[in-house]
Write a structure and sequence with these properties.
Elements (H helix, E strand, L loop, with lengths): L2 H20 L2 E9 L7 E7 L14 E5 L5 E10 L1 E10 L18 E3 L12 H4 L1 E3 L3 E7 L3
Parallel strand pairs: 1-8
Antiparallel strand pairs: 1-4, 2-3, 2-5, 5-6, 5-7
Length: 146
């Protein structure tokens, strides 16, 4: 192999690695359905580890509020790095930026999780809600529970 061929091969490999590095993130679309009304906002928190999931929003890697229309909400997050994540949703009906609880710690507002992970004697578990995000467009469909 001559020097020109080696240079061309090296250049092609560098371009391929550069293109791969540019596609290491994508758009995650979180679609939430089943709201009992359009009051308040939907709180969306995305975690990349079990630390703080699902109640400590300050430990999430993404934390947004979105509108509710026609008892549903769609949140599009561009530029999310590929990785393993779990989504936690709260229907913040009274717009106080937190989940409200009643007697015996029972939630007053709706909640949801990726993979529609269920709450069994406590909040949904990270391992039940986690998913691997590796494509440029990914959808997480969540049904709210009350």
């Amino acid at each position: 192999m001559n020097k020109t061929s080696v240079f061309i091969l090296f250049s092609l490999l560098t371009l391929a690695q550069s293109a791969e590095a540019q596609t290491c993130s994508g758009k995650l679309t979180v679609s939430v359905t089943g709201f009992r009304n359009n009051n308040g906002k939907v709180l969306v928190a995305i975690y990349n580890s079990p630390d703080g999931y699902p109640g400590e929003r300050e430990k999430s890697v993404v934390n947004v509020k979105a509108d509710i229309k026609d008892n549903s909400s769609v949140i599009e997050l561009d530029g999310l790095p590929f990785g393993t994540y779990a989504v936690a949703i709260v229907h913040d009906e009274n717009n106080n930026s937190q989940m409200d609880f009643g007697l015996f710690g029972i939630n007053k507002e709706g909640y949801g999780a990726s993979n529609n992970a269920k709450a069994n004697f406590g909040p949904p578990r990270y391992n039940d809600a986690k998913f691997t995000f590796t494509s440029s467009n990914c959808n997480a469909n969540i049904r709210i529970s009350y």
